[in-house]
Amino acid sequence: MDSQENTTPKGIEEEQKAEAAAPVTNVDNENDVKEDAKADTQEQAAAVEPDAQDTAAEDLAKKVYASKKEVLDRIEEIANGDDTPGKDEVDHLKASFYRFQIAERDKKQKEYLEAGGDPEKYQILPDEDEEAYKANMRVIKEKRAKAFEKAQQEREENLKHREEIIEKIKNMATSPDEANKSYNEFKTLQQEWKGIGAVPPEKSSETWRNYQLYVEQFYDLLNLNREAREYDFKKNLEAKTKLCEEAEKLADEPDVVSAFHQLQDLHEQYREIGPVAKEMRENIWTRFKNASTVINKKHQDHFEKLRANEEENLAKKTGLCEKTEAVAKEENKNAADWEKHSKEIIAIQQEWKTIGFAPKKSNEEIFQRFRKACDDFFGRKAEYFKEVRARLYENAEKKKALVAKAQELSDSTDWKATSDKLIQLQKEWKTVGTAPRKISDQLWNDFLTACNHFFDARNAAHASVHDEERENLQKKRDIIEELKKITATDSDAREKVQELADKYNAVGHVPFREKDKVYKEYHEVMDKIFEELHISAARRHLDNFKNNLRGMAKKGEDAVDNERTRLVRRFEQLKQEITTYENNLGFLSISSKKGNSLVDEMNRKVQKLKDDAQLIKEKIKAIDQQK
Fold it and tell me: Is the pTM of this model over 0.70?
């Protein structure tokens, strides 16, 4: 209903006080009747705040709902009920519903994004609650429109009815005799007047003044007997005393708003009771007024406290806005920073929910400021993680490629080359950033499985080789021990040395970690023997060549062939050089001392070339024997 229907203007309120003036009969003095009526009008002055009804409606419109369901239940209750809500309550319900609705949508979107959803593909699905809300709101709107139209019509009808009553009382107030005859009809008209509802606001004051004027004229003409008057005074005093007691009990009511509304009902009842004896009027009215003052004061203090709390809430919310804006401005270098600041803002949002309303004029403004700061932060966060997800999926593609390469190599038996390649893939894997969590572990397991498959096969294949290498190591150490036993006095020392050297060279590989150690030990023994047996350096060189020949063979047949080809080519070059030097010797004269010296030098060079050629020939022979 319109607020003007729920609020009684000051002028009307004062006129209503006169309406309750009870009639008296057979009064000795007409002036006493008139004085009684006027005094009763004065004692009906209600100790009610002018905006009490507005405050009550505003209180309902500010009710705090804990959930969207509570809002929907209240809307459905209004839509299906007989009551018609005020505009403020409807607006408050609408704002409350969309506050919860937006919060739910934001939560669903956040959960979708945190689960790895694509922001561009996110869709807001139809909401059954919103459809129910809109349907009930249409019903409420139609109900309010009909109620307003009906109220307007009722006001016009009420105005017409009141004017008819005024006209009848006016006709009754023509003479004392006419007034006495019409007393019962007058009382009936008074009861009818009380039962009539509101009239158009612009006619309310004028109608009430006219009614009061003719009622006072009627009372002036009444000639009531003293007994009837005193009886009325007694009954009225009893009724008013009871109302005073009820008003005084309201001081103990814990619900201040409820006590205030109950007081309004008591005031309505008080107005409808007629006057009391003149000597009691001031006392009974003072008692009722004092009880009303207590309730009104508590009611006023209650809403002043609410208004003070609203100002305090505004200060708190302003502080939270500043805090949120400060967090939103902080630099976010990585996902951990975003997560840390998100938790801070979410904590602020939780604190915001614990704070009540700010003053009405500032409540929406401060909320929009807070929402803007939150939306700005979470919008930039969504953009950041969109880019992060793009990088994660790019890394996933790189890792898938590495997995494919590893799987291609997993069955290879080219142990050395494949090992190098897989180790390189593992190094490359470490340089690639993280992939999405839901596929990261699977990619790593696939990559690890492919690598392990190869290395397990390689280790199994090399198990026998390791055993053989350890046996070779022992064989070489045994040969070294035999070489240490050879002395220069042995008649067949050279043959034993050569035999053991060939035997040593024929032994295969030893463990890699022992290779250098046994090699050094062997050559130290051989150098000592060669020195004792006066074996030439060329012979040692040939022996080392044979020792290294097996390692060359491991590189492949082409490596050995290339070495033989090189040696053959070098052997031919040496033969040509020897031939050249020998021809030159035929032209030299040895008649002089200088000439003899030159011939000796050239002979030495020729012999050196022949020794080198012989060594190369031995190497070629060793290669052929190896084959």
Answer: no
